[in-house]
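Re-run with default settings, no changes from the original entry. Doing this only to confirm the output is reproducible before filing.
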Amino acid sequence: MNYVFTDTHCHFDFPPFTGYEDESLRLAAQAGVQRIIVPAVTAERFALVLQLAQEHAPVFAALGLHPLYIAQHHEAQLEQLVNVLANPPAKLVAVGEIGLDLYMENPQFDRQQALLKQQLALAKRHDLPVILHSRRSHDQLAAILRRAAVTRCGVVHGFAGSLAQAQAFIRLGYYIGVGGTISYERAQKTRSVMAQLPLASLLLETDAPDMPLAGYQGQPNRPERAAEVFQALCGLRPESPDEIAHHLHQNTQSLFALLSNMGN
């Protein structure tokens, strides 16, 4: 059976896709990846991400201020996000990529947390889900999400934490993003977590051009490889591929409401 997938996390506004968007989307579609959600990482990329969504039917936009670029985010950048969300384009489906990161040098963690809380409040005000980045910060993130009570919740993308941490996010109503990490035999902890979580809580993603799958080390990741992440997930789960594909599709629709945002 031919399945239809959504890459729920692809940085399509970066090389190697820049200037090759049509070809990249064609390759993705050939693999069954019919839709791509592109999360912005800085305010200066908002316009490009929105333009990609406007010009390409399979592309949907998310706008947010990523914690890795905390030094670039100030009141003016947050105000840009406020202004766009005040009159959101039709294909804007989430606030993201936002979150916390304690792996980076000089994390400015107080500023990260303050910015995250402001963006969660915006998501709640505009009834949008959030796309969350978290490295070495799952417990702190869960505590903030618990207090923020975002209406539509969201997804913790590229998850590589423990089963207990994943279950804590799920109890709060959040989905867990499944990426190429599970294609590596050595990633036993993450593979075990993804094998045990409820299918109703999983989303498919690549994080392209980052997080290359096993066998593609040193190459940019690509959205069509979401189909290979799906195959890797099927190898870890007891359910049939049909059931897994069905849940992934339903989860994506439930969170992002993409069908109601198909117009340009």
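Strands lie at 5-7, 33-39, 59-63, 92-101, 130-135, 154-156, 175-178, 202-204. The domain at 5-234 is CATH 3.20.20.140 (TIM Barrel).
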